[in-house]
Amino acid sequence: MIIFLNGTSSSGKSSIAEELLQVLDTWYFHLSIDAFASMCPGDRVMELDEPELNAFLRRMRAGFHRSVAAMAQAGNDVVVDHLFSEPWRLQDCLEVLEGLDVVLVGVHCSLEELERREQARGDRTPGMAAKQFQVVHQHGLYDFEVDTSTSSPRECAEAIKEFLGRAPALRAFDELRLR
Ligand SMILES: Nc1ncnc2c1ncn2[C@@H]1O[C@H](COP(=O)(O)OP(=O)(O)OP(=O)(O)O)[C@@H](O)[C@H]1O
Q: Fewer Cβ within 10 Å of end Cβ, the chain: N or C?
């Protein structure tokens, strides 16, 4: 099982993922694109020129998608914390995760609250969430959706768990592949 959380920066994906690890009945791994980004020497990477940096980041994200697939193929249950802020990312995930059971969860949050969180965190580029806001949910299809403007991370995790018990067999990823 792969529970795939998609939402803007500061929408609360990581917080929900950590709660899911506590409330789910089996032992999931939380695989996060942020964790992958922290594995490289960030200060040296920032010295790359723009085309090199874009190529580097694309390889990292493609590697992340394949690592998720590899963990699931080895029999592990996984919570993925990622964002479809470029169309190729969703397309790549649809291809790479084919044959695996993916439940796609949209993590929503009001723009006002996103901007408040972004400012409070201080370690995120101001305006990043607003830029992603118009893009990450553009494919418009989920198995389940949560709103972190009105629910706590624990409430979202509990709602996702409850959904898993009644989820229809046809997944959003199956429908998106047919498009
Ligand atoms: N449901 C919530 N209600 C209120 N605050 C929240 C909620 N979920 C997360 N937050 C707060 O918002 C901030 C961002 O949360 P989190 O790191 O989980 O988001 P994220 O989507 O993983 O962000 P990023 O992609 O930038 O890493 C944190 O300060 C967190 O405490």
A: C
For residue 7, the ligand 1 atom closest to its alpha carbon is 21
> If you measure from the C-alpha of residue 64 to the centroid of ligand 1, how many angstroms do you get, rounded to a whole number?
21
What is the rounded CA–CA span in Å between residue 77 and residue 55? 30
Alpha-carbon separation of residue 119 from 1, 37, 122, 128, 152 (angstroms): 35, 21, 5, 11, 19
pLDDT tens per residue across span 101-138: 999 999 999 999 999 999 999 888 899 999 999 899 99
Complex ipTM: 0.98
In the chain, the number of structural domains is 1
Please report, for the domain that includes residue 152, its CATH number: 3.40.50.300
Q: Which residues line ligand 1 (CB under 6 A)?
A: 7, 9-15, 34, 81, 117, 121, 124, 148, 151-153
